[in-house]
Amino acid sequence: MTEITNVTVFGTGVLGSQIMMQAAYHGKTVTGYDISDDLLAKLPERWEWMRGYYRRDLPDFDEKRFDAAIESITTTTDIAEAVADADLVIEAIPEQLDLKKKVWAQIGERAPEKTIFATNTSTLRPSDFAAETGRPEKFLALHFANLVWRYNTGEVMVAKETEQKYFDIVLEFADEIGLVPIPILKETPGYLLNGLLVPWLQAGANLYVDGVANPADIDNVWRTATQSPHGPFQVFDTVGFNVAANISRMGDEKQQKFAEILQKGIDAGKTGLGDGEGFYTYDADGNVVAPVTSWNHT
User: Fold this and answer.
1) Are strands 74-76 and 88-91 parallel, antiparallel or unpaired?
2) CATH number, position 260
3) How far, CA to CA in Å, does 218 sit from each of 152, 168, 252?
């Protein structure tokens, strides 16, 4: 059993909120930090959205335990308050290197000596902003998959200066909060999951950008021919347009064009499964209702 009791999560969006609940539901004391009260005010709606999925996906789901987890979570817009007694900080802010450098410098200046630092970055190299923490030996990556309670991998990846004991502690912590710990022994962008997933998603996006086929048809051929439950555009909905757009902006011309396409959904407040609509509409249980035909090429 680790000594990690107090967990602070930076970023309370779609994935950050899931990380918060995953830790709280498994008995950790959780603080969520975000840059505005308006963002924090969205959390009660996210808890209820998650409750439906927990109830459906977890055979041993406990309503009282879920309610207790909600009650145990505190939130703040003050960095010093957020990290004051943190045993572990998990960062889940947007995939922008300069922003991560800035935020980690602020965390490193204010966190107590005991605190271990973990980033949930999906595509950036942790070593590119490890120095900003002021304690790179205690800094590493802990990567969660979206819909954490169901796709409960915990990819723990070393950065260049990570000490072995902190790597071991975070692997054990991942197990404590109901994840399947996946050790990654050498730093690589995208870890194992995204190293496999992102090229596949980009291939689907490129077919769409090139006008070859519409999202539902691209998904349909993949599902039918491979017997996979989801095609790439269903996965874009699951990941969320904000994350997908940030990743696409770092790509080539086609990927940047796809980011512009995703931005239309973001601007309309329809960013995927979490909003009930992306490339598809979804019912209250997260099941696909129908493709959104406004995305179709005509």
Assistant:
1) unpaired
2) 1.10.1040.10
3) 27, 41, 21
Sequence-separated (6 or more) residues with CB below 8 Å from residue 183: 156, 167, 171
Domain end call among 184, 204, 239? 184
Segment 180-225, tens digit of pLDDT: 999 999 999 889 988 899 899 999 999 999 999 999 999 999 999 9
CB 161 within 8 A of CB 64: no
**What is the Cα–Cα distance from 112 to 22, expressed in whole angstroms?**
24
* pLDDT band at residue 274 under the 50/70/90 scheme: confident
d(CA 8, CA 83): 7
Strands (E), 153-287: 153-158, 180-184, 280-282
pTM of the entire predicted model: 0.81
Q: Is the pLDDT of residue 234 over 80?
A: yes
DSSP secondary structure code for residue 86 in this structure: -
Domain count, the chain: 2
Indicate the residue among 151, 184, 217 that finishes a domain: 184
What is the rounded distance in angstroms from the CA atom of residue 32 to the CA atom of residue 18?
Answer: 11
Do residue 148 and residue 177 come from a single domain?
Answer: yes
Alpha carbon distance 222, 104 (integer Å): 40
Q: What is the average pLDDT across 94-101? A: 94
Same domain, 283 and 147: no
From CA 241, how far away is CA 81, in angstroms rounded?
31
| Tokens encoding 109 | 């200046």
Do residues 177 and 37 both lie within one domain?
yes
Q: What is the mean pLDDT of residues 1-29?
A: 97
What is the tens place of the pLDDT at every residue in 30-50?
999 999 999 999 999 999 999
Distance CA 201, CA 270 (A): 19
- Side chain identity, residue 203: A
Give the pair of three-digit tokens for residue 80: 């010093």
